[in-house]
Amino acid sequence: MRVIIYQSNFGTGARYAGLLAEKTGLPCASLDEATFPADSEVVFIGSVMADELQGLARVRGRYAHLLAVGAVGLFVVTLPVDEAKEKLKVTEPLVLLPGAFDPHKVKGMFRVMLGMVKHALKSKSTGSEAEQKALDFFDRGADLFDETALDALVELLNGAPAADPAEGTERGANG
Fold it and tell me: Using an 8 Å Cβ cutoff, are 72 and 33 in contact?
């Protein structure tokens, strides 16, 4: 059984997952609510925060077959996919999805971390357009949701064969 599981900080991961479910007909649930069988083939869509794909370890611990990963973020989409895979510790096929950020929804330790990142950017700023854009995102927020970014996941799902239940092994990037 193929399923979509997502984790979302600002709602963008949920939007991508819901749209992917519409396009593919696959069942979809948030990581906290998912009750799919452990042998399900999972497409996981998660938020990138502080160079970590939120929820990925939990999905790997609960499900035997991680088919593909969608990483949602503002800045991860600027990286080459191979670099993003290494940074996020993803071995499965990875699709980078432009995200959103709402500074008013950041709480607790992440608010402290955000302040530190903003301070570091300002103090080491060269005045580049990319740095100014990052500071603007952190101060005002952003929504870069792009429906067409899902096309790569849809294509991957349409071309990926279903796992052989008798096989019993996890599929990696080449499987």
Answer: no
Which one-letter amino acid corresponds to residue 116? M
Task: Give pLDDT, residue 160.
Answer: 61
CB of 91 closer than 8 Å to CB of 60? no
- Token pair belonging to 138: 């952190």
- Find the Cα–Cα–Cα–Cα dihedral 14, 172, 48, 59, rounded to 10°: 60
| CA–CA separation, 123 and 29 (whole Å) | 41
SS3 letters for 26-85?
Answer: CCEEECCCCCCCCCCEEEEEEEEECCEECCHHHHHHHCCEEEEEEEEECCHHHCCHHHHH
The model scores a pTM over 0.90: no
Collect the ranges in the chain with pLDDT lower than 70: 160-175
Structural domains for the chain: 2-102+143-159 (3.40.50.360), 103-140 (no CATH)
Q: Given the structure tokens 């709402």, which residue do they identify?
A: 102
